Amino acid sequence: MKASVISVPCVQAIPDASGRSAGLGKAADAYIASGLFDQISGLGIELVDSSRPLLPGDRLSLDPIVNLGRYNAMVAQSVVKGINAGARPLLAGGTCCHLIGMLSGMQAAYGATAKIGLVWIDAHGDFNTPRTSKSGMLGGMPVAVSAGLCLSPWRELAGMTGPIPTDRILMVDVRNLDAKEADLVKATDVSIVKFGPHGNTDAVASGIQRLADKVDHIYLHVDSDILDASLQPNHPSVEPDGPDLPALLKVLRHAFGTGKVRAFGVVSVDPTGPLGEVSLKSGAEMILGGIAAWNQLEP
User: What averages of pLDDT result for each successive group of 10 residues across the chain (299 residues)?
Assistant: First the structure.
C-alpha cells in the first residue's frame, strides 16, 4: 500500500494559535521527531508524499471562517495529490477543523457524483451551529458545516462541491452531546452507534457496514478524545469513560475491512506538558495500528 501523510501544524488555520488548545498544533512535529513516519515505512507501506500545508500571510483574513476555508483548500490539494499518486491520505496532526479539507479533497479526486460517507469516531458530535453552540467554539461545528447546516464559506472556500448528506454520516460514541446539538442530530438522518459493555464493538461494526453498503468511499476520522481520559489526559475536551486502545483498534479494523476507506485521520493530540508523552503514545498507536490494518485489509 502507498500512503501520503498530511502533517497539519496548526489548530485551525494558523500555526501560532494560543489558548488551551494550542498544544494540538504541535502533534505533527512531535510525530516526525519520534520517528513515526519511519515506523510506518517499516510496516511495508510506501510513503509517496508528506505535505505540511501552511497558509501564507498574504492570504490571512480577519475572518476566521475565511481562513479556515482557505486553509482547508490547501489540505484538500494534498488529499488530491496523494490519491492521484495512487496513495491513501493520512491526516496526522491538526484537529477536527480540518475535516472539511479531507472531504473536499475526496470529492475533487473521486468526482462530484461519488457517494462519500463519513465515519466520525469522537467523544463529541461537533454538530453544533452558531445557533446551538453554548461556547461558539468553531471546533464544535465541522460536521454540521460538512452537512451544509452552517458557515457555508468554510465549506465553499475549501472547494467542497456540495454538503455530505446526513444519511451518509455515522457517529461512533459521541458520549457528550450538548442538548441542542443532540436535538439537531435527531432532526437529521445522522446515525449514532455506541460501544457495548466492556468495549464490545458489535453494534459499531454493524453500523459501519450499513454505511459502507450505501457509499462508494469513506473518510475515517478519529478524534483522540474518543479514548478514555487516562489515555488522552491533556486533551482540551477530555472525556472519561471512553474505550481503551484495543477496542478502538478493533473498530478501525472493522472500518478498513469494508474496503471503502480511502482516507484516514487521527487528530487532536497534544504532545506538550507533563502528560504529553502519554497522549502522543496513544495517538501514535492509533495511527500505526490503523494503518497496519489498512495495509493488511486493503483490497
Answer: 97 82 95 96 95 93 96 98 98 97 98 96 98 94 98 98 97 97 98 96 98 98 98 95 97 98 98 96 98 93
Q: Per the confidence metrics, is the pTM higher than 0.85?
A: yes
d(CA 137, CA 148): 17
Q: Beginning with the edge strand found earlier in the chain, give each strand of the sheet holding 88-92 in spatial order.
A: 46-51, 2-6, 88-92, 261-267, 217-223, 116-122, 169-173, 191-193
Kindly state the cell numbers that stand for 13: 488555520
Q: Domains (ranges, CATH) in the chain? A: 2-297 (3.40.800.10)
The rounded distance, in Å, linking the Cα atoms of 270 and 268 is 6
Query: Residues 6 or more apart from 261 whose CB is under 8 A from it?
Result: 88, 119, 217, 218, 219, 220, 255, 294
**Cα separation, 39 vs 42, whole angstroms:** 5
* Distance in angstroms (rounded) separating the CA atoms of residues 251 and 293: 11
Smallest Cα–Cα separation from 107: which of 265, 219, 255? 219
Alpha-carbon gap, residue 220 to 251, rounded angstroms:
11
pLDDT at position 299 is 75
